Every structure is written in structure tokens, then in C-alpha cells.
Please model this.
Amino acid sequence: MLTPLIFAVPKGRILDEALPLMARAGVVPEAEFHDKKSRALSFACEKADMRLIRVRAFDVATFVAHGAAQAGIVGSDVVEEFAYSDLYAPVDLDIGHCRLSVAEPEGHVSGANRSHLRIASKYPNLTRRHYEKMGIQAEVVKLNGAMELAPSLGLSSRIVDLVSTGRTLRENGLIETSTILEISARLIVNRAALKTDERVGALVERFRALVAEKKAAA
Ligand SMILES: Nc1ncnc2c1ncn2[C@@H]1O[C@H](COP(=O)(O)OP(=O)(O)OP(=O)(O)O)[C@@H](O)[C@H]1O
Ligand SMILES: O=P(O)(O)OC[C@H]1O[C@H](OP(=O)(O)OP(=O)(O)O)[C@H](O)[C@@H]1O
Model:
């Protein structure tokens, strides 16, 4: 039998929007995948030659870039943060929309005319790149969540974080001062697998057709 194709998905908020699309593309995990009590991380699929793995968003990109998974779904924030050369993101799935923005404490918005800034973010590369373009050296304090706490506790003057409704910023006394990147979820594939495994190319075509269909119907 063929080695199963490994499809990686993030475990959190993208998943609810991704599952219906995946189902239409023929990626349907076994019932245990939906059991909140299950501690399993790898799941059989309706198609016998496919398995689904559920990992953290940043790790989806890592598994696919290294060829441990052949395909997956992840936000374009993650794709851009790593810029892995072996990872190809051929289809914008038009789900998981949000943005990566700079935010500062309300009432303490500082000018951009500083040569050095300390910024808290889960995205050190995107943050540095953004400020480099403006000739500013950004010292990034890497956090994995709750960035919004950093300015009030003196850890940084600004944060770079994901914004969707803006509620988290508001409730933590911060305002959005600029947008770095508009984000949506992407189908990602391993470049080598795309060349050597025809199932990967077929998946890309199925997702591409589904997105085109959805656009045409809108
Ligand atoms: N409001 C939002 N906040 C955070 N991420 C969002 C938001 N809206 C869409 N996204 C997208 O969802 C992705 C996170 O996906 P998800 O929550 O499924 O992953 P996760 O594995 O739970 O993440 P984590 O590593 O933070 O636990 C982000 O990378 C981003 O592309
Ligand atoms: O603009 P909003 O709609 O308020 O959404 C943005 C918030 O959502 C995300 O956090 P998440 O809930 O994923 O938790 P995290 O802090 O662990 O990343 C993100 O990091 C923001 O904190």
C-alpha cells in the first residue's frame, strides 16, 4: 500500500473554517478527531492513503517544510514569518482573515523617528523586517501569547500582534497604529513532495478549484 500522505492542520481557530473546505476536497478525518477528550495527534482519514496531524500553527509550517508532512493549512502570517524555501503556498483559501499590526498604549503613541525600538511579538522576523524598511533597528522580545501585557508592564514600548475584531487591543488599553500584513489561511505543500507525489498536485488542484467555485458564487 502507498505511504499515507500526511496533511497537517493547526489545532485552534482556523480549524472550524478549514474543516468544511477540507471535506469538500476529500480530506475527512475519522470521528476521533472531533472528540475533545482524545489526546491523539494523528488521525486516519476516509481515504486510506491519508492521515491528518493536528499541531500548533507554527509547527504546521515546520512539519511541511521538512517533508514530515506533505501538505497542510496555515495562516499566511506563519508562511511569511519563516520564509522556508522548501515550503510552497499555492492556494489562498480565503478563510482565517486577520491582520498583523503594530499597537501602542493609548495616550503614549510615540513617533517613528527613533533609531531603536523594543517590541514584543510572536513574529520576530516579520517585525524586524518591517522596521528595517524604515531604517529602524527593532529589538524584539519574543512572546508566545498575551503580548498585550508587555507595554503596561514595561517590557516593550509597542507590540506586533494579530488583530481581528480589535477587541483584545481595546480591552488592554492599546491602539492599532499601523498594519504590517493582511492575513488569510493558505494551503501549503512541501516542494519536493509536489514534484514526486502526484497526490500532492491533485490536492492543490482540488483546493484551487473549490476556492474558484466559492469566488464565482459570491
Ligand atoms: N483573531 C485571530 N487571532 C489569532 N489568529 C487568527 C485570528 N484570526 C485568524 N487567525 C489565524 O489563525 C492562526 C492561528 O491558528 P490556530 O488558532 O488554529 O492555531 P494554534 O495552533 O491554535 O495557534 P497557537 O500556536 O497560537 O496555539 C494565525 O496564525 C492566523 O493566521
Ligand atoms: O482582535 P481580536 O478579535 O481581539 O483578536 C486578536 C487576539 O486573538 C489572538 O489571540 P489568541 O486568542 O489566539 O490567543 P494568544 O494570545 O494565545 O495568541 C491574538 O494574539 C490577539 O490577542
Remarks:
- The mean pLDDT is 95.
- The first helix runs from residue 14 to 24.
- The two ends are 41 Å apart (CA to CA).
- Residues 5-96+184-217 form a domain with the D-Maltodextrin-Binding Protein; domain 2 fold (CATH 3.40.190.10).
